[in-house]
C-alpha cells in the first residue's frame, strides 16, 4: 500500500511539473513576440574588426520609429528613457545617421532595426567607394580614387560594411512584421514622451553575440590555443570553392607525371566572379553586382561549346579555353589569390584531377568578365595598350556593330591603371606584364553589395517560355522579347564575346547566324534570383533530385557553411560544357569524368564532363608565419555565434523595476528575520516534540 502511495505521489509531482512548464511557456509566449529577420554579423581582417554584435545575454532597447531626420534628432538629444532601438527605413540608413548612432554609444542606442519600407529609397550601397582598394595593384590610387566619384567604382558607397558597431543591426524584410512593430510602438510608446520613464514601453531584444574580437591575428591565435585544449572556435577563415572547366577535355597525366607542365599546351582563361556580399546574414542576391557577368560567362561557355569544331580541327590542336568562376572575390580576391598561388606552386589543377599542372606560361591571355551594370556602355580595360588588347577590341566591335546581327553596341576601351575591381588584379599584382583584359561597364549600380541588389534592380521578368534552352537561337528569333530586356542584353554581349573567341581560336571570322539563346539567360536568372527548383538546375542535376524553392546563397561563407552556389555552378558548367555519351548506360556512368544528368527532357543522359573544384581559401592561412598586417593576401575571417533571434515585449518602467526590487529586498529581510526568530524560539514553539536525540539509546558499559 505504501509503495502505491509513493508511486502515485511521484506521478502527481510529474504531472504538476508538466503543467507548470506548459503554464510557463504559455506565459512566456504572452510576454514575448518573436520577430523574424536577418542580423548583421562580425567579420575580421588582419588589422581590424567590422560588423555588429549584441551583448552576451542580448541587447534590449525601446522601440522608436524614425520617419524623418527630426525623429532621429529627438532620440539623440532628448531621449527620456534610454536605451532605445530606432526603427530606420532604408532612405535614412545613411552613413551620417549610423555614425551618430554609433557615437551615442550602447548606453543610449542598444539596437538598430532596419525596416523594409523602401518607397523613398534612391540608393543603398554600404561597400567602399573603392572595393578591395588595398588588395589589387600595388598603388591603390592608380586603380581607384575614392575622393573622385568619376574615378571610383562605387560612387554611392558609404563604407558602413567596413565599420564596427557596438550594437546589433537587425534587418526586417517581412512587411507584416514591420507593421507589428509599428503598432506596438504607436500603442505603447508614441505619446506623452515625458512620462516614458514612468510606464511600461514596447521594447525589442536582439541576440546576436559574436565570439571574435580585435582582428584575425588575435582571433586565430585564441582559436588555435583553445582548440589545443579541446574547446570551441572563435572565428573561421572565409572559405569556399572555385569552379573551373575546360572547353575540351584534357589528356590525363601519365604515371609519375602529375608534376610535369606541358609547355606546349595553351589556354585562354575566361573568368568571372561567383560570389556577392551584404551586411546581413543570408540576404543579398547580387543581381547586378556579379550575376549578370556570371550569366554572360555561362552563355559564352555554352555558345563556344556548340560552335567550335573538335579540338583536333583547330589550327593549334593544343589550344584550349579554361573557364573559371572565382569565389570570395568580394573579400580581397580570395579565390583568385589562391588560384594564382596554386599556379605558382604547380598545384592547379588539384592532384585529385589527375591532370598535368597548369603554369602561367600556359596562359595565353585572360579575359575577365566584370560587373555589367550598364550593358550599353561597356569598356575593354587593360593595363597597357598591347597588340593583343587592340586586336580583341577590334574583333569585339566588328561583331558589336555588325548590321548582320543588330547588336548595336559600341565597345570603348581604356588602357590605363584605372582598372575595375575584378579578379584580373590578382594576376596583375603578381606580374604587371601578364596579358589580362577586363570587360566592364561603367558603374550605375546604386545598390552594390546590398540587400536591395535584387530582381527589381535588374528589371528581370521571368518569360517562362518552356522552350528548349539547350538549342542555340537564330539572329531573328524571340522578337516577342523586349530588345531592352535583361535576357536580350545578356544574349547580345554573350554572342559578341563568343564570336570574338571563336575567331581567336579558329583564325576565321564567324559568319554564322546562330547566337546565344535568351531562353538560357531567362532560366539562368530565374534559378539564381527566384528559385533553385527550376528547369535549368533540374536538367543539370541527377534525375529526380529534390531542389529547394529558394535561390542559392552566393556569400562565400566558411568551412562547413552553405556552398550552394558553387555546387550548382559545378553541375551547370558540367552539363553545358560536356559531351553526350549515348552509348554508355546509366549503370556505367558513375565515375568522373562521366556524369549522369537529368537533361532537358528529364529522361537522363550520360555525359563526358570537364568541370572540377579548386580551393578558395586565402594563402594567408596556409603560409607558415604569415605576417597578418602585410596586406599581401586576404585575411578575412568570420566570427562564430550561437544564434540570431529577436523578440518584442513590454519593458517595465524604471519606477516599476525599482519598486519590484525594493519589495523583493523587504520580503527577503522579513523572511530572514522570521527564520531567525523561529529558529531561536524553536524550543518554545515546538516544546511538545521530542528532542532530536531522544530516540537514541543510552550508552552502555562495554
Automatic annotation (TrEMBL):
* Membrane spanning stretches: 658-678
User: What is the name of this protein?
Assistant: Nicastrin
Family (UniProt): Belongs to the nicastrin family.
Give the originating organism.
Drosophila gunungcola (fruit fly)
Gene Ontology biological process: Notch receptor processing; Notch signaling pathway; protein processing
Query: What range(s) does the Nicastrin small lobe domain occupy?
Result: 39-212
User: What InterPro entries would the database entry show?
Assistant: Ncstrn_small (IPR041084), Nicastrin (IPR008710)
Query: What membrane topology was assigned to this protein in its record?
Result: Single-pass type I membrane protein
Signal peptide positions (record):
1-24
Keyword list (alphabetical) reads:
Glycoprotein, Membrane, Notch signaling pathway, Signal, Transmembrane, Transmembrane helix
A single GO CC term for this protein reads: plasma membrane
Subcellular localization is given as: Membrane
Amino acid at each position: 500500500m505504501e509503495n502505491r502511495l509513493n508511486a502515485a505521489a511521484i506521478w502527481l509531482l510529474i504531472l504538476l511539473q508538466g503543467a507548470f512548464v506548459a503554464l510557463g511557456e504559455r506565459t512566456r509566449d504572452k510576454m514575448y513576440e518573436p520577430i523574424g529577420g536577418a542580423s548583421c554579423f562580425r567579420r575580421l581582417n588582419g588589422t581590424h574588426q567590422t560588423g555588429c554584435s549584441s551583448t552576451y545575454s542580448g541587447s534590449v532597447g525601446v522601440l522608436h520609429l524614425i520617419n524623418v531626420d527630426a525623429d532621429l534628432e529627438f532620440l539623440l538629444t532628448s531621449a527620456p528613457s534610454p536605451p532605445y532601438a530606432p526603427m530606420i527605413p532604408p532612405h535614412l540608413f545613411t552613413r551620417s545617421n549610423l555614425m551618430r548612432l554609433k557615437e551615442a554609444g550602447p548606453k543610449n542606442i542598444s539596437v538598430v532595426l532596419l525596416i523594409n519600407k523602401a518607397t523613398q529609397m534612391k540608393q543603398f550601397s554600404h561597400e567602399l567607394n573603392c572595393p578591395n582598394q588595398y588588395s589589387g595593384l600595388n598603388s591603390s590610387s592608380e586603380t581607384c580614387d575614392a575622393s573622385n566619384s568619376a574615378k571610383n567604382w562605387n560612387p554611392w558607397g558609404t563604407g558602413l560594411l567596413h565599420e564596427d558597431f557596438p550594437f546589433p543591426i537587425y534587418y526586417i524584410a517581412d512587411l507584416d512584421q514591420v507593421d507589428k512593430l509599428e503598432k506596438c510602438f504607436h500603442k505603447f510608446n508614441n505619446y506623452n514622451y515625458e512620462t516614458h520613464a514612468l510606464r511600461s514601453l514596447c521594447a525589442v531584444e536582439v541576440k546576436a553575440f559574436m565570439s571574435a574580437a580585435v582582428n584575425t591575428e588575435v582571433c586565430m591565435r585564441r582559436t588555435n590555443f583553445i582548440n589545443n585544449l579541446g574547446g570551441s572556435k572563435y572565428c573561421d577563415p572565409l572559405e569556399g570553392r572555385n569552379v573551373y572547366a575546360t572547353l575540351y577535355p584534357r589528356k590525363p597525366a601519365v604515371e609519375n607525371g602529375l608534376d610535369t607542365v606541358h609547355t606546349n599546351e595553351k589556354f585562354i582563361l575566361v573568368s568571372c566572379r561567383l560570389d556577392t556580399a551584404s551586411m546581413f546574414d543570408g540576404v543579398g542576391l547580387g543581381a547586378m553586382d556579379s550575376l549578370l557577368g556570371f550569366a554572360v560567362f555561362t552563355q559564352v561557355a555554352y555558345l563556344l561549346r556548340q560552335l567550335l569544331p573538335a579540338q583536333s580541327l583547330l589550327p593549334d590542336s593544343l589550344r584550349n579555353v579554361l573557364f573559371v568562376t572565382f569565389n570570395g572575390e568580394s573579400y580581397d580576391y580570395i579565390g583568385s589569390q589562391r588560384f594564382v598561388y596554386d599556379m605558382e606552386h604547380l598545384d592547379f589543377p588539384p592532384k585529385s584531377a589527375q591532370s598535368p599542372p597548369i603554369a602561367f606560361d600556359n596562359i595565353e591571355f585572360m579575359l575577365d568578365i566584370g560587373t555589367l551594370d550598364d550593358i550599353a556602355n561597356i569598356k575593354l580595360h587593360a593595363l597597357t595598350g598591347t597588340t593583343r588588347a587592340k586586336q580583341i577590341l577590334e574583333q569585339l566591335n566588328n561583331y558589336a556593330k555588325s548590321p548582320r546581327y543588330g547588336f548595336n553596341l559600341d565597345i570603348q576601351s581604356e588602357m590605363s591603371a584605372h582598372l575595375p575591381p575584378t579578379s584580373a588584379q590578382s594576376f596583375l599584382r603578381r606580374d604587371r606584364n601578364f596579358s589580362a583584359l577586363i570587360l566592364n561597364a561603367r558603374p550605375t549600380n546604386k545598390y552594390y553589395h546590398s540587400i536591395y541588389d535584387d530582381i527589381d534592380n535588374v528589371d528581370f521578368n521571368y518569360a517562362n517560355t518552356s522552350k528548349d534552352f539547350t538549342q542555340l537561337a537564330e539572329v531573328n528569333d524571340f522578337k516577342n522579347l523586349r530588345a531592352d530586356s535583361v535576357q536580350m542584353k545578356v544574349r547580345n554581349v554573350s554572342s559578341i564575346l563568343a564570336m570574338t573567341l571563336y575567331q581567336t581560336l579558329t583564325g576565321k571570322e564567324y559568319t554564322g547566324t546562330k547566337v546565344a539563346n535568351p531562353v538560357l539567360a531567362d532560366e539562368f536568372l530565374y534559378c539564381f534570383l527566384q528559385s533553385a527548383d527550376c528547369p535549368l538546375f533540374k536538367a543539370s542535376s541527377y534525375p529526380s533530385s529534390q531542389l529547394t524553392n529558394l535561390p542559392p546563397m552566393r556569400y562565400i561563407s566558411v568551412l562547413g557553411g552553405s556552398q550552394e552556389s558553387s555546387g550548382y555552378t559545378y553541375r551547370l558548367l558540367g552539363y553545358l560544357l560536356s559531351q553526350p555519351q549515348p552509348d554508355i548506360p546509366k549503370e556505367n556512368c558513375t565515375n568522373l569524368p562521366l556524369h549522369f544528368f537529368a537533361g532537358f527532357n528529364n529522361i537522363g543522359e550520360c555525359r563526358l564532363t570537364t568541370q572540377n573544384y579548386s580551393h578558395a581559401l586565402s594563402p594567408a592561412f596556409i603560409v607558415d608565419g604569415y605576417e597578418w598586417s602585410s596586406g599581401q593576401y586576404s585575411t578575412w575571417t568570420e566570427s562564430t555565434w550561437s544564434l540570431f533571434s529577436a523578440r518584442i515585449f513590454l519593458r517595465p518602467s524604471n519606477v516599476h523595476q525599482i519598486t519590484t526590487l525594493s519589495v523583493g529586498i523587504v520580503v527577503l529581510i522579513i523572511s530572514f528575520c522570521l527564520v531567525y526568530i523561529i529558529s531561536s524560539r524553536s524550543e518554545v514553539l515546538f516544546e511538545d516534540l521530542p528532542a532530536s536525540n531522544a530516540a537514541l539509546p543510552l550508552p552502555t558499559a562495554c
